[in-house]
Amino acid sequence: MEDVRKTVTPQLRTDKGASRLLLIDLGEGKNRLGATALAQVYKQLGDKPADVENANTLKQFFDAMQALVAERKLLAYHDRSDGGLIITLAEMAFAGNCGIEVDISALGDNDLAVLFNEELGAVIQVAESELTAVREILNTHNLLPLTHELGAITTDDRIEIARGNKNYSVKNVPNYVVFGRN
């Protein structure tokens, strides 16, 4: 790293104005649940684990993230891995001491698979004023088709996940942070 001041953390930034949360889905919508934390909870292994669909896409992702960091376009970054998208979003909200509102309608039909798959990918927070520039960089690296706008942060302490008229909600996020640290 050439400049440590350009480090990006999972902490959602509430001090940077209006922003959006984007998912870059390197699993290409497969949403495989084999060998995930969710499968382990149910004492199952599953048959299709997360996998790299295209090694070149992984390289393009790395190059795109490096470009976004170099140009200071990312407010926050968190990989999607252990626990899936739901844990990624929760950890980001916990770190930022804020809430989030996201819509998962475009990510597949199976809510459990969408929220708990551990496919490669990341959630990034970008300023609304930088969305066009960020999309251009992602497009340059052939990642725009894998990018989904999820939603935004909120000033309350709730994680709200919507799909059409169905909503999932976790309230009192700070209480979960305290619980998670004991």
TrEMBL record:
GO biological process, one term: purine nucleotide biosynthetic process
A cellular component term, taken from the record's GO annotations: cytoplasm
Alphabetically ordered keywords of this record: Ligase
One function term, GO molecular function aspect: phosphoribosylformylglycinamidine synthase activity
Entry EC number(s): 6.3.5.3
Residue stretches making up the PurM-like C-terminal domain: 28-161
InterPro entries: PurM-like_C_dom, PurM-like_C_sf
PANTHER family for the chain: PHOSPHORIBOSYLFORMYLGLYCINAMIDINE SYNTHASE
Name of the protein in question: Phosphoribosylformylglycinamidine synthase
Organism: Rodentibacter pneumotropicus
Classification of source organism: Bacteria, Pseudomonadati, Pseudomonadota, Gammaproteobacteria, Pasteurellales
Gene it is expressed from: purL_4
